[in-house]
């Protein structure tokens, strides 16, 4: 069956330049030269190293145009915080090949764990897979396990009467776009893709070992990201840890009154991996000071000192001690 399907896939893919099965060499050009570190060795090094830092690349004209509000980066930030991963950068870029190529190359080289969100749908402007393939000098290839899961899990649509999985059609061509993923021919394809949940056909494709390609639909993004937790946790600096720890201290003082103390405090606690934050709450009578890090005992030991110096008290959430007339 697969030999018949391969013939069908080749036939359908010919008129679609965004993901045609070109040779690896054709992806390298003067405009987008292949990065020097793209190799199987780099893939496995990036895939196995300890995860300390992360970055998120949101891809979509609809976000930049104000049509859609990005919630995926916020969800990813909370996910990283819960695991003790330092999220270093969030960027939003257009559905533009050059932007995607530049963004994923730079983030892959600088951070341990990278996710992209958006641009892997069935339409012409969904170019994330093809752009990431070009970024790392890879081919695009039909990932057959994903196609089989797609067929098994996709319900028949009344809007596409007569659709058949084994006959060429515009609808089938569109669906194939969603399961043709970046592929390194020197690495087993199952090591380059992961099914994070059992009830979804969408694979999380991995390029260069540390770039993970996720969909932009928030519900699906969140579900697949949560499914990655079990895969990621063994690679954390503290696999058994409970992630980052945050303390909130509410103060009635303005930032200018506590700035000198907090500056000194930040310098003192920095060697312990603790960050001090100060956040004004406009229109409210109380502001917030935060202590964030992975050493719970050390952070808790600082609370009494901070409460005294900012004339405040520890709270569980912002606003819980706001006066009724605020």
From TrEMBL:
<dbReference type="Pfam" id="PF00994">
    <property type="entry name" value="MoCF_biosynth"/>
</dbReference>
<protein>
    <submittedName>
        <fullName>Molybdopterin binding domain protein</fullName>
    </submittedName>
</protein>
<dbReference type="InterPro" id="IPR056596">
    <property type="entry name" value="FLAD1_M"/>
</dbReference>
<dbReference type="InterPro" id="IPR001453">
    <property type="entry name" value="MoaB/Mog_dom"/>
</dbReference>
<feature type="domain" description="MoaB/Mog">
    <location>
        <begin position="55"/>
        <end position="236"/>
    </location>
</feature>
<dbReference type="GO" id="GO:0047884">
    <property type="term" value="F:FAD diphosphatase activity"/>
</dbReference>
<dbReference type="GO" id="GO:0042726">
    <property type="term" value="P:flavin-containing compound metabolic process"/>
</dbReference>
<dbReference type="InterPro" id="IPR036425">
    <property type="entry name" value="MoaB/Mog-like_dom_sf"/>
</dbReference>
<dbReference type="Pfam" id="PF24102">
    <property type="entry name" value="FLAD1_M"/>
</dbReference>
């Amino acid at each position: 069956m697969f030999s018949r399907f391969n013939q069908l896939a080749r036939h359908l893919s010919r008129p679609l330049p965004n993901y045609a099965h070109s040779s690896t060499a054709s992806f390298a050009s003067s405009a987008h030269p292949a990065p020097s570190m793209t190799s199987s060795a780099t893939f496995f090094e990036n895939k196995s190293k300890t995860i300390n830092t992360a970055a998120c690349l949101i891809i979509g004209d609809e976000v930049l145009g104000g049509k859609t509000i990005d919630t995926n980066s916020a969800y990813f930030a909370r996910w990283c915080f819960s695991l003790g991963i330092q999220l270093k950068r969030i960027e939003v870029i257009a559905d533009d090949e050059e932007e995607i190529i530049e963004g994923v190359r730079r983030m892959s080289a600088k951070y341990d764990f990278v996710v992209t969100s958006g641009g892997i749908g069935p339409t012409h402007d969904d170019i994330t897979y093809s752009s990431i393939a070009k970024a790392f000098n890879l081919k695009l290839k039909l990932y057959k396990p994903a196609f089989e899961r797609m067929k098994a899990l996709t319900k028949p649509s009344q809007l596409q009467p007569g659709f058949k999985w084994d006959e060429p059609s515009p609808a089938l061509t569109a669906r194939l776009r969603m399961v043709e993923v970046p592929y390194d021919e020197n690495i087993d394809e199952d090591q380059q893709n992961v099914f994070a949940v059992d009830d979804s056909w969408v694979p999380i494709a991995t390029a260069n070992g540390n770039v993970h390609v996720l969909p932009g639909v928030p519900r699906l993004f969140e579900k697949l990201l949560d499914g990655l937790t079990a895969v990621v946790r063994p690679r954390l600096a503290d696999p058994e840890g409970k992630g980052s720890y945050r303390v909130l201290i509410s103060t009635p003082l303005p930032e200018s009154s506590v700035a000198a103390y907090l500056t000194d405090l930040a310098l003192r606690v920095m060697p312990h991996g603790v960050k001090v934050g100060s956040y004004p709450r406009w229109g409210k009578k109380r502001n917030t000071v935060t202590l964030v890090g992975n050493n719970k005992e050390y952070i808790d030991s600082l609370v009494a000192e901070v409460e005294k110096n900012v004339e405040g008290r520890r709270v569980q959430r912002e606003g819980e001690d706001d006066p009724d007339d605020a």
